[in-house]
Design a protein that fits this description.
GO molecular function, one term: [protein-PII] uridylyltransferase activity
InterPro entries: CBS_dom (IPR000644), CBS_dom_sf (IPR046342), cNMP-bd_dom (IPR000595), cNMP-bd_dom_sf (IPR018490), Diverse_CBS-Domain (IPR051257), DUF294_put_nucleoTrafse_sb-bd (IPR018821), GlnD_Uridyltrans_N (IPR005105), RmlC-like_jellyroll (IPR014710)
Oligomer: single chain
Shape: globular
Number of domains: 4
Keywords: CBS domain
Number of helices: 24
Strand order of the largest sheet: 1-8-3-6
Largest sheet: 4 strands, antiparallel
Strand content: 5-15%
Protein name: CBS domain-containing protein
């Protein structure tokens, strides 16, 4: 084999999916590779072009675009693209452009097809399309163990830091010396305190290899400038107590390649996509990436048919209720986000900034397979109905109609952005919440309690966080509001009789059954929300709210663990019932028949309902009218 082919084979063997192939196979590929050079900013493929080769970046960087011109992904040396075109009628779906001077290896289609046919791992890898998403892990890994692992398990080393006063040249040299693709930027004062470990320093920003390419090299920016001039400052982070699966969801949802891990506000590590590759992606996580590759409502509708199978797979893999709720919520948010992208592409750029809100179970990361849509809009304070009303009405209709087509049914109570009542400016939302809290009319709160679980999913999401802060601070100081909210939380009681026997529906379609949402998980979530607002918690998820309630010490010892156990058990009874319905070809619902439960399940379900009953009595005592 010629020296040129040996060099190609050596390069191929460094990267997935080639690094798992036999040596003679790699040598055979290397002898059939063709090489092409592309200048910076030149098109490699346009939408609809024919393609007959798998493309691998030898050097340089490539940007992949969606059909509407939005950036889809950035790839560097070792990155693959074009595989979806080969798999779909030899036509380019995602245009590619050279970000900088780039060399491309072209692997013939015949070789690509032979590899897919012969090597399952190779086929699985390329069929995942977007390599910013998760890839399958090394064979033999137990995904269930990783699903319950803390995110710190993914940290391979202490974070590498540099002072904000360092030059870009020094940052690049340090990244090369340390063999890392990112640096955390800390203040000069932090470094001047002595040779303490990097972990524990307060960060002020981050710089990555992509920043060096896109913000420095591509723009001709001076490498003698300080890193603080090009670093990213509005960072998305995750707490060290979070699970590995949560980190994965965050990275997929926000298209991140690096995610800092914080312990009490200070960095203890940074995980990259290469760290995530160590464990197998669940199909639900892959779906999150797939959502953003769909270019029409029809494609999204087709993809939405797979949501139920993702749900069932999570259940069968023994994921807990928090994991399942988070995964399903992120999938739901992703559909909203993609629909909003499509809406803006169809309607044009918004005339003023806005934030699209998710409400209720999706905001709490507790969404399951049966759900309707609850959403709203925060509009910039410059909003003028005469100038901007038509645009945002059309935007809301596009998204809500699209969600309905994708299986997220319309809210029967009209709590959707299509309702003009729930399209308000920032000032109007604060005034609205202030009125609910200052003048707590029980009937009004009964209908609006869902708004106290809100999260921004698109646009100026910081506005949602600011609104959450406003709600938490104001509600904790208003006992009349908390008492009214508590009274509403007592309106749905657990289905236990005087002798602790189950009280079931007496008539209708679901007679002799128990609605696990209406009589179990929903009143428990309502109860937890009251305590959380009382202690000023900004958390939305019920388990995370319980952690904040525990820290405040307002409940007797042991009550928090009882509430967590009860919520988990009731949720899993409901979740498994829905999964069984789906597997049996029935329409999933929230109604369980106790006669179909084991003796163990019936006994523990009664205990869980009793914890709810006792907690409701305490709620009445703590927040008297």
């Amino acid at each position: 084999m010629e020296a040129e082919h040996i060099e190609v084979a050596g390069f191929l063997s460094q990267f997935q999916p080639f690094n798992g192939l036999p040596e003679d196979t790699i040598n055979n590929i290397a002898q059939q590779v063709e090489i092409a050079y592309y200048r910076a900013d030149s098109d490699i493929f346009k939408f609809g072009d024919e393609i007959h080769d798998l493309c691998m970046i030898r050097s340089g960087a490539v940007e992949i675009y969606r059909r509407n011109g939005d950036l889809h992904n950035r790839l560097s040396a070792g990155g693959l693209f074009g595989q979806m075109g080969l798999l779909m009628n030899n036509r380019i779906r995602l245009p590619a452009k050279a970000l900088e001077d780039t060399l491309i290896y072209f692997i013939p289609e015949s070789v690509f097809i032979a590899l897919c046919d012969e090597f399952e791992a190779f086929a699985y890898f390329v069929e995942m399309d977007d390599h910013s998403n998760l890839q399958h892990a090394v064979a033999g890994k137990d995904s269930n163990n990783l699903m319950v692992s803390k995110v710190t398990r993914l940290i391979s080393r202490e974070p590498v830091t540099i002072a904000c006063t360092a030059t870009i040249r020094q940052a690049a040299e340090k990244m090369t010396e340390e063999g890392v693709s990112s640096l955390l930027i800390v203040s000069a004062a932090e470094l001047s305190q002595g040779p303490q470990h990097a972990a524990g320093r307060m960060m002020v920003g981050m710089i990555t290899d992509w920043d060096l390419r896109a913000r420095v090299v591509a723009t001709g920016f001076s490498i003698d400038a300080t890193v603080e001039e090009v670093m990213s400052t509005e960072l998305i982070t995750i707490d060290s107590d979070a699970y590995a699966f949560e980190a994965t969801l965050i990275m997929l949802r926000n298209h991140l390649h690096h995610l800092p891990i914080l312990d009490r506000g200070r960095p203890v590590g940074v995980i990259a996509i290469s760290d995530i590759v160590r464990y197998e992606s669940q199909s639900s996580l892959y779906m999150v990436g797939s959502v953003f590759r769909q270019n029409s409502l029809e494609e999204l509708q087709l993809l939405s048919e797979e949501i139920s199978s993702c749900f069932v797979r999570l259940v069968n893999e023994d994921a807990n209720s928090h994991m399942i709720g988070s995964a399903m919520s992120v999938i739901g948010r992703s559909f909203k986000q993609r629909l909003l992208e499509l809406a803006e592409a169809h309607l044009g750029a918004p005339p003023i900034p806005y934030c699209f809100l998710a409400l209720g179970s999706m905001a709490r990361d507790e969404q399951l397979i049966i759900t309707d849509q609850d959403n709203a809009l925060i509009l910039d304070n410059q909003y003028d109905p005469q100038l901007h009303g038509e645009y945002f009405e059309a935007l809301a209709n596009f998204v809500c109609d699209g969600l309905a087509v994708c299986g997220f049914s319309y809210c029967t109570g009209g709590i959707m952005a299509t309702n003009p009542l729930w399209r308000k400016t920032r000032q109007e939302w604060e005034a609205c919440f202030a009125d609910w809290i200052d003048n707590p009319v029980p009937e009004a709160l009964l209908n609006c309690s869902i708004f106290f679980d809100l999260e921004g999913v698109w646009g100026k999401v910081l506005w949602a966080e600011q609104l959450n802060t406003f709600i938490a601070q104001k509600s904790s100081r208003e006992p009349r509001f908390l008492a009214s909210l508590a009274r509403n939380a007592l309106s749905r009681t657990p289905p236990l009789g005087f002798f602790k026997n189950f009280v079931m529906e007496q008539d209708g379609q679901h007679r002799n059954s128990i609605n696990m949402k209406r009589r179990g998980t929903a009143p428990l979530a309502d109860l937890i929300r009251v305590h959380a607002l009382a202690v000023g918690s900004k958390a939305r998820n019920s388990f995370e709210r319980l952690d904040d309630i525990d820290k405040a010490g307002i409940l007797q010892e042991g009550r928090i663990s009882d509430l967590k156990d009860s919520l988990e058990f009731m949720s899993m009874v409901r979740i498994k019932h829905q999964a069984h319905d789906i597997e049996a070809g029935r329409t999933a619902d929230n109604n369980i028949e106790p006669e179909h439960l084991s003796e163990f399940e019936r006994r523990n379900l009664k205990d869980a309902f009793q914890v709810l009953s006792n907690s409701q009595r305490f709620l009445r005592f703590r927040y008297p009218l």
